[in-house]
Amino acid sequence: MKLIAVDVDGTLLNSQRVISDKTRDALIAAGEAGHKIVIVSGRPTAAVYHLAKELKFDEFGGLLSNFNGGSITNYATGEVISNHTLDIDLAKELLALTHEIDIEFVMPRGDRIVSNKDSKYLGVEKTILGLEADVVEDLVDSIDFAPNKIVFANDPEILEEQMPIIKERFADRTSQVRSQRFYYEIMPVGLSKGASLLEIADHYGIEKADIIAFGDEMNDYTMIEVAGVGVAMGNAVEPIKEIADHVTLSNDEDGIAAYLEEFVL
Description:
Strand order of the largest sheet: 5-4-3-2-1-12-13-14
Shape: globular
Largest sheet: 8 strands, mixed
Order of helices and strands: EHHEHHEEEHEEHEEHEEHEHEHEH
Number of helices: 11
Helix content: 25-40%
């Protein structure tokens, strides 16, 4: 049995943000053949349910790894295999940073998202994730939940200047990754997409050599690195292609299906 991990944006989804028929059929065939399929995403869990349903995860026990590895769920049973959150006091410190530097946050909260500004970044998240949002200007004193992650957002050039400030202050207490040019994600220390795959493999008794991971962006780096076979999409950024064991076709050319049909099915 293989553990087949697929990133969402730029990997599972094509440029129209849908799963192509060929990619969907290949993943369903792999699941029906007994392989364990996992959607690995920075998105909240609720924002990938529709993808899991489309891939028939309810029929063969597909898995969801969300918040860049912060939460792992069995879609069919609803079992939460693991859930990692930021300490509330640490979250308050991170949110207080928005008072010092001009940066906004977008933070998952259950099946909703919360932000300190009603901006273009929140609009993009609402559209992509299909979730409703709450705008709360100051959560530092009122936050009453432990978040799986906090996403800071800003224009790429400005974010580039702000990242060292965040790293210097919180690097020893958090895991951090730039998931998009305008997003910088802060998670509990030790978490990553790669760590979640090892956690899943251990849970199901799957050898590391039997992990196949598909990705395209820098937040996929760790899972491409730890997998027995790391597969970079044709549209992947160069650092991902450089460490991958195989480079497949792009997300608009059914790259996942091309690999699975040649080497797995």
